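P.,

For your records, the input lines for the assembly:
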Amino acid sequence: MAASLSSSGSARLMTALARSSVLYNSFESRSLHVTAVCCKNRAARIRIGKGDKPLTYEQAHHPHQIAHRKGWLSQHTSNLKGVEGAAERTVEDVFIRRFMFGTFHGCLANEVVIKRRGNMLVVCALMLQKLPPQKFYFLIGYSESLLSHFYKCPVKLDIQTLQDKAVYKYL
Amino acid sequence: MAASLALRRDFFSLAKILGGISQLGPRGLSACSSQRKCSQTPFHFLQTSSPFFHTATYLSSTPLTITVTDEPDTLFQKVLVLVKAHDRAVLDSYEFFATMAAKELGITMGKVSEPPKDIERLTLLKSVHIYKKHRVQYEMRTHYRCIELLHITGCTAQVYLEYIQRNLPEGVAMEVTKTAMEKIPDHILEPIWKDHPIDDKSSK
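Structure tokens returned:
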């Protein structure tokens, strides 16, 4: 409702109110208060377009659908009550996502899922079949050994490949 | 495990439907073609390298040695296992797994309760610069599940807890509280005034 008032409908509403105020007494006229446009939520939302933009299931759902229709991309225990270490895990996650994006450039079909089981880091990703499997295996082994040396814990990669990106809807 | 499958439901189900035979891998393809003709794969069998593959995490565990000692085993009156997670469905499946394991091992279970969830909320400003009236709220929910084990020996407790903890899903934390039973020390068993009645008479 507030959104429709702040967009093009506001001009028509103002003229309608002005016309109505001429007929009625001036002390009965209502004033219009338009809120700033920043009240719209823009976090992790892709705006509606012409209908040619393909979206995956992750991108199509808004962040308030997490725990309802979406799962979590990074699973660890440090955000639970009474557990510390949330900041360190977040920094590690950001680095791992950028590393995966760079190592498998153009091959990622969807977001990287990071899971922590005990001491072990499991990085799960969906890839497109752009490279031959030998190169994929080399990159998987390279990233596993590099990340395990960097984080001093066993790192395993779970890769599944697809022909094309899994499209959920077009916006 | 049953617990980790619940987590993958949203993310991988779509990929697995579309990936189709991507799970077979090159080894699976050759086995498939040797036994019977797969209608989907003759095109890929002719190529030298198959584009389908998928790697999975294999957890290897070293076999534990069994030690026999003569000292008496510790007895636990109660072992409380409190599990915390962000997702209630994960806790449901983990509780099913833990209760089934306890029943198979013959461990007497107390009640399995669900303490009320804790929600930690943060309120932040929505905009970078001004607009103090517009804020954004984030919350972190912690769900709990408490499993009680009654009258359990130390060895059984160690084995059961190790099994439970190896299969703990990611994103789930566990706290174990053990209530041990100890033999009453001998000097407390009898009251002191019974042993030394002569002292009172001599002081008078």
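Two observations worth noting. The CA atoms of residues 78 and 86 of chain A lie 5 Å apart. DSSP finds five helices and six strands in chain A.

Regards
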